[in-house]
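Intended use. Records like the one below are meant for learning the mapping from a protein sequence to its folded structure. Do not use them to infer anything beyond what is encoded.
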Amino acid sequence: MQQSERELGTASGDLPRLSLIYEKHPLYGVDLFIAGKEGASDLDLLRRHGITTVVNCAVNLDFNYVLQPQVVSDHEGSVYGPGEIRYYKVGLIDGAGNPDTQMVAAHYILRAALEQVLPDKPSYPRRERGSVLINCRGGRSRSVVVVALFLHLTLPREFPSLEAAISFVRDRRRIPAGEWYKAPKPVLVEAAKRAAEWSRVIDRTDNP
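Structure written out for the chain above:
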């Protein structure tokens, strides 16, 4: 899928509002995107790029994708109902403060977003399986490290190290070299390294 700067626009800090990171993941057959709050909140932009699922890595950012009034309820100020997008929340802090298990969980939540099969019932109306967006507030730290961890673990021949995956994601996200020291934050990189080891143990246990 070709993307033009005019179509995607730019977000704060001159990053693209939406970045195609990996096209047609060989295990899942879908495209993986990264965005910050500007891209993740633009429902029309997501639809134009076939994005049906959002994995939000940020604890300090939320979206309301609920638009259908016939299936929406309003109880004490909280609007709820099936959203226009399948939405998963990881809730990482952009820095210290996350338990080690949370980065492990981030990897498996992203996998679940790709592997989960919803039942054919009216209460599960969003069963489309399209592209996946991973976002955080700026789209340069939490989302970058989660996608890099996922690529490293699911495509180890292409990304034999976490560092190689991070470099690839930075390049596709067009993060300037002057920001690499904080994109992603070093504490998140260290957490992802530990998560990679945990995940390999978990996967060996599940598939002896």
